[in-house]
Amino acid sequence: MDTLYLVIPCYNEEEVLPETSKQLLKKMQSLMQAQKISNKSRIVFVNDGSKDRTWEMIEQYHAENPIFQGVCLSRNRGHQNALLAGLMTVKDHCDMTISLDADLQDDIDAIDAMVEKYYAGNDVVYGVRSARKTDTFFKKFTAESFYKIMKHLGADVVYNHADYRLMSRRTLEGLASFGEVNMFLRGVVPMIGYPSDMVYYERKERFAGTSKYPLKKMLAFAWEGITSLSTKPIALITRLGILIFLVSIVMLIYSLVRHLTGATITGWTSMIVSIWAIGGLQLLAIGVIGQYIGKVYLETKQRPRFIVKTYLGDTPDSQETPESF
Ligand code: UDP
Ligand code: MG
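That is the input. Now the predicted structure with uridine-5'-diphosphate docked in place:
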């Protein structure tokens, strides 16, 4: 039986923690009884610099029952960093982790299916929303457009998957080898590359408290995702530059024709041609410089160039090479 750690980032979640801890405890106990996970499995709350009683409550749960653990960050660092902090703290103690939100909007009954799929040989199991019935039209529209734009810009994200996912220990080790500071987990996890599968669930409404992700944070998050995963916007500038430069050639021919037929006033031809040509050349030049900056950017991330899955080498009890060899 393998050990499961649940990792839950919490920011000002005093209203939801009593219910969340109760439900998660029940879920873990049922999994233990069904012999799906070991008794060493734990529920880990990560306090992301909360200003309310969140940490005191976590301390209290830990004192009452050691199945609850807590990680306290020095200050608020945002959901992604809090999650990463939790995962990196527990990675040497568990065989698999499942990350989920404190408000239990993600159906915790999907945990059983995730664990099943883990035993079936998957290192990553993505929780995917099958419906967004409870989201407002605005949230649904913005969120779904986000996934589409990301895909278009070359970032390999799983459609309608947030950060509700199971990851095996070796996936966490792979994740640890990514050195980037702007870690956009949804884009980085698929890059690690081990076998993966999906579990579908319906997302519920927050049962207490308010969303810690107002529109402003959501937009910042989307921008962070695009810029940390893709340098395609730079390539777009280059293409625009080429396009406008081509237009300038067309304009050159057009204005020469107008000039020769005498249908212009003095100075118009040279003005029009230089405006287009200089505009196009400038954009093109910015694009080219941008391409190099993009390369520098990717280099500074120091991402692993490969992750070795298996090495068939000597083991401590392997035999000497046979004489006849
Ligand atoms: N969260 C966090 N740090 C932050 C903001 C949010 O750790 O700065 C946590 C929050 O406690 C919750 C999860 O991230 O467990 C998702 O936040 P929320 O439910 O408010 O987002 P929404 O579901 O509205 O997108
Ligand atoms: Mg939520």
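The longest strand covers residues 124-131.
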